[in-house]
Design brief:
Elements (H helix, E strand, L loop, with lengths): L25 E4 L5 E6 L5 E8 L11 H7 L10 H10 L3 E6 L4 E8 L3 H13 L5 H18 L3 H14 L19 H11 L6 E6 L3 H11 L23 E5 L5 E10 L7 H13 L4 H9 L6 E7 L4 E10 L3 H17 L4 H17 L4 H15 L4 H12 L2 H11 L6 E6 L9
Helix pairs in contact: 1-6, 3-7, 8-11, 8-13, 8-14, 9-10, 10-14, 11-13
Length: 437
């Protein structure tokens, strides 16, 4: 028997992937308005249940209520205290992850097959019968206020918040942020009212993924088909128009040794025809460790430990962001270099080798998003939130990754890399010239 020698210096040839075989979910429409996706996959006795509401911060009329309404679900029901809920879930090996964004609020619930029915009974109780006890709300406010005060000492927080406020306007749902004093005025009645108005099945989604049989699925659906989630009217609220206030903004923070930079612009919704190509273009510029921004600003200039660019999808638009922290005094030079790299992409076509490298990276990332039932559940939730359950989006993305040309990327760069209209937000102790404080 001979051992084949592998030359580690030779990169394996990339094999293009023409499609990803996504398990087709069973789709059920509940009488209260929920759409349900059931994905029976995986070999382990594990199940994940995601319940998603259109109840993000854009729908709140008072700061923090969207956060509190989803975060405090597990802190008490009409039949269980927060301690009882925690002890039961711990005994069953289950846990709950609440989350919220500008557009959505959700809970992700993980449990085992052995204690499936008992743990789902707890889940349905806290979703259907929450009470938001006052003492738990007081604790939530105390912890939240302290955490926010700490965050506001960070230049990364200041530059991020100022970026979105400048991009959309500080009164816009996407540009406004909570302040510490908002925790002092948060009332139990506010949280209950928001929950009653916004945690509705209309335009909501339930994703059940894992090793789950028909009996278990039926058990979950009967528990979550409660009339509590039914809405008599459309729960949608139109997003108000936004207005970019300033293109160059600065937030002063005394005695900082680093400046934080956030810059970018608004992009179309994720279902726009240009978005697959923009995913490729973003990856080239700053979307992975070998990107042009990393090579320039980390490896060549030594301005930063890391820099990245990414696309933040939202329900009705997307935001393209470049993010980094650099030494004080290097912020202006960093912004200049970022703009130079954008200019290069507008004028110089990519080499075949660089494009192939990026294609391989993106393909691998796509495959990871469908690796296992829980990853599939997250991807299905994302397709619901940003693509209206258009399952063809992934195929179009892969097709674009495989077929886009250097000329096509240059065209996109010239269309979207208008540096004069991009918002640049810098936070630190040294104010650059031409920036509004």
């Amino acid at each position: 028997m001979t051992t084949q020698e592998i030359d580690r210096a030779v990169q394996p040839q990339r094999v293009p992937i023409s499609e990803v075989r996504i398990p087709t979910p069973d789709i059920v429409d509940l009488s209260n308005g929920f759409k349900v996706l059931v994905i029976n996959a995986g070999s382990q006795e594990l199940v994940r249940v995601d319940v998603i509401f259109r109840a993000g911060t854009r729908y709140q009329s008072k700061s923090l209520v969207a956060n509190a309404a989803i975060s405090l679900l597990s802190e008490g029901t009409t039949s269980r205290t927060s301690r009882q809920i925690a002890e039961e879930l711990d005994f069953y090996g289950s846990f709950l992850e609440p989350s919220f964004t500008r557009d959505f609020a959700s809970v992700s619930f993980y449990t085992t097959g052995k204690h499936f029915y008992r743990s789902v009974d707890v889940l349905s109780d806290l979703l259907v019968n929450p009470t938001f006890p006052q003492h738990e709300l007081d604790l939530f406010c105390k912890k939240g206020k302290q955490s926010l005060l700490v965050d506001l000492e960070k230049v990364s927080t200041l530059s991020r918040q100022r970026f979105f406020s400048a991009l959309f306007g500080d009164s816009h749902p996407y540009g406004s942020f909570a302040i510490p004093d908002d925790y002092d005025s948060l009332l139990q009645a506010d949280v209950i009212q928001f929950r009653n108005n916004r945690h509705k099945a209309s335009n909501g989604l339930i994703v059940i993924a894992g090793k789950v049989d028909a009996k278990q699925t039926d058990f979950i659906l009967k528990r979550l088909e409660s009339h509590v989630f039914k809405s008599d009217s459309d729960t949608g609220i139109s997003l108000p128009p936004y207005k970019t206030t300033n293109l160059r903004v600065f937030s002063y923070k005394k005695d900082t040794v680093q400046s934080s930079i956030r810059m970018g612009r608004v992009l179309p919704k994720r279902n726009h025809p240009d978005m697959p190509g923009l995913v490729v273009l973003n990856s080239v510029l700053g979307g992975y460790f070998g990107s042009r921004l990393m090579r320039n600003l980390r490896e060549e200039k030594g301005y930063t430990y890391g820099i990245s660019s990414f696309i933040v999808p939202m329900a009705e638009l997307s935001v393209w962001v470049i993010s980094t922290e650099v030494g004080v005094g290097y912020a202006e030079s960093t912004v200049d270099e970022i703009f130079k790299e954008m200019s290069r992409l507008k004028k110089e076509p990519l080499s075949t080798d660089e494009l192939e490298l990026v294609r391989g990276y993106i393909t691998g990332q796509i495959l990871r998003t469908f690796d296992g039932p829980f990853a599939i559940a997250e991807s299905m939730a994302s397709l619901f939130q940003f693509n209206n359950l258009d399952f063809g989006y992934i195929d179009r993305l892969i097709k674009t990754v495989n077929e886009i040309t250097p000329a096509g990327l240059m065209e996109l760069a010239n269309r979207y890399f208008d540096t004069d209209s991009m918002v640049v937000s810098i936070a630190g102790s040294l104010k650059p010239k031409g920036y509004k404080e």
